[in-house]
Structures are given as C-alpha cells and as structure tokens.
Amino acid sequence: IQRQSIQIMLCYDEDEKLTPSLEIIVPHDLADGFVNNKRQSYKFKFQRIFDQGANQETIFENIAKPVAESVLAGYNGTIFAYGQTGSGKTFTITGGAERYSDRGIIPRTLSYIFEQLQKDSSTIYTTRISYLEIYNECGYDLLDPRHEASSLEDLPKVTVFEDPDQNIHLKNLSLHQAATEEEALNLLFLGDTNRMIAETPMNQASTRSHCIFSIHLSSKEPGSATVRHAKLHLVDLAGSERVAKTGVGGQLLTEAKYINLSLHYLEQVIIALSEKHRSHIPYRNSMMTSVLRDSLGGNCMTTMIATLSLEKRNIDESISTCRFAQRVALIKNEAVLNEEIDPRLMIIRLQKEIQELKDELAIVTGEQRTEALTDAELLELEKLITSFLEDQDPESRLEVGTDMRKIHHCFHYLKKLLNDKKIHGKSTVSSEIKDQDCQEPLKEKEYKKLRDLLQQRDNEISILSEHERGRSRERGRHRIGNRLQAPSHQPRA
C-alpha cells in the first residue's frame, strides 16, 4: 500500500516458517530544509496480519475462536484491542450496528460459546456476565439498573482490592447469570448503551473509556466434586490521541489526559514484564492494569489486536502501536487449568465425616444415646434386614451406620426371625415323627407275619426230610433180606 510516498508492505520470511511481517517505509522529505536522520524503514513481525478487506468472520475464526475454545476447556483468556482513536478497535471488538455481518468479536464469541454448551449435555455449565467501564480512572458497572436513570457520578464506583493471596477482587461489580445466548446479548446491548461516547476531531463516535466485557464460565460433571472455573476478558481500550494534534479542550481534554495516562501505565507494565530480571511490576499504578493483572504475565492466554490507521498524518501513531505490540509479544504467560473442589460438596462431605467420627467415638467410649428410634426408623431398618436376607449376593453388606441403637435393633430383629424359624422347624419335625409312629405298627405286623411264614416253611422242610430218611431205611432192609434168601431156590446138581 502506498499513500503519499509512504509505503506499507506485507511480506513473508521463508526462513522462519512464512512468518508475516509488516514493513513501513517513510522516505525523508527534502522539502523540510534540514538534515533528517530518521529511520526510513520499520519492520515488525506478527503472527497474523489482516488488510482492509478482511471481514469480521475471518477475524473471529483466526483470533477469538481459539481463545474461546481454551476457555471452554477451563483456561482463562483475554483479547484486547490497542490502537489510536478511530483505527477500528470498537468495531473489531463490539461490531457495527448497520449489518448483521458486522458483528464483532464479543457477540460472535457469545454465539459460539452457547452453541458449544448446547452440544455438551453431559456437563452442567453456569455462565455469568459482567461489564466494567473505566472512565477517568474510576470504575463503573455498565449493567447497573440505575445507570440509565442516574448520572455517572451518582453511581456506586467499582473499587479494586487485593486479598492475601494477591488475587484481585472488584467490589460493586455485578455478575448477571445468562442461560441463553439471547440473555447474554441483551446484557451486552445494555452495557453498550450506557458507555461514554463523545464526538472528537478524530472520531465522530469515540469511546471515552476502557471497557472490559467478562464471561465467567463454570462447569461440573454430574456426581463429581470438581468444578472448573474460567473467565474470558474482551477488552476495548480507549484510543490514544495527541492533544496537540487534535486541539481538544474542556471535558474532552480531561478525558484524553486520563486515557493517555492509563495507556502509559499499561505500557510501563508491558515493558517491565518484557524485561527478564525486573523484580517489580507496577500493576497498581492504574485501575486497568490492576484488573488485567492475570491477563498480563499471569494465568491467562492473552491475544492482542493492534489496529492501525494508514493515513500519512497517523503514521507515527501506527509505528508506535506496532512497537507496543512487539513488546507485548515478548511476555510469556503461564496458563493453567482452573479446577477446584466444590465448597458446598466439601462441606457436606466434612459434615458426614464429622458425624461418622462422633459415632465411632460413642462406640469407643461406650456412651449410648438415650432417645428411642422412631417408628419410621424401625420400619426402615426391618426393610433393610429383609432386603439383606433376600439378597443372593454373598458379598452384600447390611449398612446401618454406627448408631448402637440401630445395631441393637438389628440383632433383636434377627433373633426374632431365627426363633420364629426354629418354632416352625420343631412343628415340622413333630409331624414327621407322628407319621413314623403311625407307620410303625404296620411294619411290626408284616415282620411277624413273615417270621411265622418262615417258621412254617422250616417245619415243613424238617418233616419232609425226616419222612424221606425213614423211607430210605426201609428200602435198605428189604434189599438185604432178598440177598439172604436167594441161594435156596437154586437146583441141585
């Protein structure tokens, strides 16, 4: 781009993975009539460079979307726009009101976050919104319901205080819960309506304050005691301007002085953070640097957008903005996952643990409770015992706690069930004995009958045997007699 002999070129370094760089060439003006030893070429490297043709969708996809994804994962994020007045910071962060496609980073980020929350039904999310305005080094809540009806000076001021762990807290800054994208956008529109805007020689609608739109996101899985907290700061800084060039006065002059002073303190913090061996970082010099303490050199993933004006009269401010962006790039943040135990669940867990310890102590010391169990408690215990006895699982357990009254009642109830079972068992055994007694005479008669029959058969066998032996003796005597008489019948010779 060439504007009145000033050249602004976009180039890529092949040796460094095609890193884009912006080169501004300002030739010496020989008509000035004096020796000019200024640099003619200024070269700055950036991660991404967008020209005038880039639309809002491209800016969001490349800059804001990665930060929004990290916030959904539980990391803190910050996006802030820096540049001179009239260079397009508010248009980039908030957007334009004429067309829907001119939506800025804030509304697009809200749409993206709530779209992702609706897709993830396995996690419980809570979203809260705050909108802080820093005007003339004083903080105001843009979402205060009295903002429209009262003057700025009548509103409660937002104050900054620090706890012993060096965590920053903002007093009188309200947090509004937003369950849907529509509710969040309504809060954004309400805050934008209450912003301080004035007409200046550089901009017809110049924002005269720094604004920080914050999204606080909490997530927890059902049944889990771990909660993730993440916050996203979307910062629209007021534009710097040279009072000598603009020629403003009165209230605009006062506002310009406070704006330039706060940006100067911001630059001091950036310079201190970029120096390796710097022991003190002047966060407390201004309210803005105190609020953005985590975003600058802390637990946060920070992205800076530098907006430039390509007019010849603004070339010095553009070079200054690029230098500031280079210093910001030297800062190294350490973003960590923000997880903690839910305090309410922790209180319930500790109360249960205290009660268990008291019960154990009562068992050890032998102290018994005097009050009797209620009918509902007794019925519940009997149901537990019945369920325990019917459970076929050998590893099942009867959980009644450490209350000795309940333990004694369980033993009494089990004893009762056992006695009832014994009585029922005795009646069953006695009935079986009676049946056996009734059957005993029948068995005795059969045995006697069989014994008599056996004796009769033995007698018959004995008689038959004796008779057979008598007949055998008679036959033997008859044969001997015959042998003795035979020779007398033979004839003589």
From TrEMBL:
Belongs to the TRAFAC class myosin-kinesin ATPase superfamily. Kinesin family. ATP binds at residues 83-90. It comes from the Eukaryota. It comes from Lynx canadensis. Its main location: cytoplasm. The keyword Secreted does not apply. Residues 461-493 are annotated as: Disordered. Residues 461-473 have a biased composition (Basic and acidic residues). Keywords: ATP-binding, Cytoplasm, Cytoskeleton, Microtubule, Motor protein, Nucleotide-binding. This is Kinesin-like protein. GO terms for molecular function: ATP binding; microtubule binding; microtubule motor activity. Residues 1-331 form the Kinesin motor domain. One of its GO terms (cellular component) is microtubule. The lineage of its organism: Eukaryota, Metazoa, Chordata, Craniata, Vertebrata. One of its GO terms (biological process) is microtubule-based movement. It is found in: Cytoplasm, Cytoskeleton. SUPFAM superfamilies: P-loop containing nucleoside triphosphate hydrolases (SSF52540). The keyword Nucleotide-binding applies.
